[in-house]
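ok, trying the design again with the full structure, not the truncated one.
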């Protein structure tokens, strides 16, 4: 068992509070991903869990036991960094087996364990090479091998794939998932990459300015963000947010955008929001381009068209508002065209003046 509990953890660097009372739990064998804007404290939190940084307040627990003061090498936690820092004068086998060598494990045992790890990471053919003769992806696999040979109960990853090119990232992502399924360690993984977070995580912790903004399964975060921050942080391209006012006195409540168009908000009790400012959130894939005026919620002018082959992003301007529409396939629209937009109204998100989801 290796459940990590973060309980009201705070971290100060001098007078500067970087982590402001963070709590979450990663269950045994879970793959948790930490995301958040640059400087929000992800690496600091990871380093505190590893024992490389002291905890100012609160508890870090491993299986219910407080480990704040346990030295890093006695925590059973391994960490893999973005810069893999392999020993250049050692072979792949020596790099992977180094920690066992330090512990004076018999050579034959080291050879066997290095062999098993190498097989798992598809490094068996490369064991005699030095790091300078490896690709970036292979080096990162050696760094992972060096971490897992210690059979850690928890592995912390700090942006391990960010130095790799796009295709290697895809390959390494799949390998990390395979590794996780094979060994089932508890993993906490820091990344800036939306796709890594969404595809690998059992749970995502979104940090913002040293606080947990939301902590949930990736699809739950995507479907039910609790604030405008999470709504726009999770999902790429990001959710459209439109400023406006709610009217709820009539039979059918509605939202009127600052640019003057109105959409009905059927089936919602918005009495408490009557005549209040609000944000209407709608993801780009929940807006359609339609032909008939009768179907349309509004019309606007196309300003930018981004063609990705499998899909097209169309930026449509309505007054001072720009809406991003995500369309399957390649479509025949050009900058300057006037288009009609229809919303999938069941996919609306509403946020109040405090940027929190409504109803809560
Ligand atoms: P990034 O995504 O850019 O890597 P991050 O979310 O991992 O950022 P941290 O590296 O944890 O952010 O840093 C959080 C804040 O703490 C930053 O403002 C950083 O400048 C500050 N910080 C980190 N380490 C120290 C330190 N040793 N002394 C003082 N301030 C620090």
């Amino acid at each position: 068992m290796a459940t990590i509990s973060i309980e009201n953890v705070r971290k100060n660097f001098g007078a500067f509070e970087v982590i402001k009372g963070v709590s979450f739990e990663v269950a045994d064998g879970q793959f948790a991903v930490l995301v958040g804007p640059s400087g929000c404290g992800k690496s600091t939190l990871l380093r505190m869990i590893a024992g490389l940084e002291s905890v100012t307040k609160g508890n870090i627990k491993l299986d219910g036991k407080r480990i704040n003061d346990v030295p890093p090498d006695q925590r059973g936690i391994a960490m893999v960094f973005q810069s893999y820092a392999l020993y250049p004068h050692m072979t792949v086998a020596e790099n992977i087996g180094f920690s066992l060598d330090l512990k004076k494990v018999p050579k034959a045992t080291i050879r066997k364990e290095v062999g098993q790890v190498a097989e798992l990471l598809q490094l068996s053919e490369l064991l005699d090479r030095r790091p300078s003769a490896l690709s970036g992806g292979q080096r990162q696999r050696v760094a992972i091998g060096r971490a897992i040979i210690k059979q850690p109960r928890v592995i912390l990853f700090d942006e391990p794939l960010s130095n790799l090119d796009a295709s290697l990232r895809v390959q390494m992502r799949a390998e990390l998932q395979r590794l996780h399924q094979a060994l089932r360690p508890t993993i906490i993984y820091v990344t800036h990459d939306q796709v890594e977070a969404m595809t690998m995580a059992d749970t995502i912790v979104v940090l913002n300015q040293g606080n947990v903004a939301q902590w949930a399964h990736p699809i739950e975060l995507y479907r039910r963000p609790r604030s405008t921050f999470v709504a726009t942080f999770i999902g790429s391209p990001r959710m459209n947010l439109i400023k406006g006012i709610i009217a709820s006195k009539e039979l059918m409540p509605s939202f009127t955008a600052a640019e003057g168009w109105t959409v009905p908000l059927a089936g919602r009790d918005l009495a408490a929001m009557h005549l209040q400012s609000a944000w209407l959130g709608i993801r780009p894939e929940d807006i359609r381009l339609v032909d008939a005026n009768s179907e349309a919620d509004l019309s606007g002018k196309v300003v930018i068209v981004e063609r990705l082959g499998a899909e097209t992003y169309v930026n449509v301007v309505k007054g001072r508002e720009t809406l991003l529409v995500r369309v399957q396939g390649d479509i025949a629209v050009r900058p300057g065209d006037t288009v009609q937009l229809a919303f999938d109204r069941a996919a609306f998100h509403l946020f109040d003046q405090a940027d929190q989801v409504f109803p809560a």
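Keeping the full-length input from now on. The CA atoms of residues 57 and 320 lie 46 Å apart.
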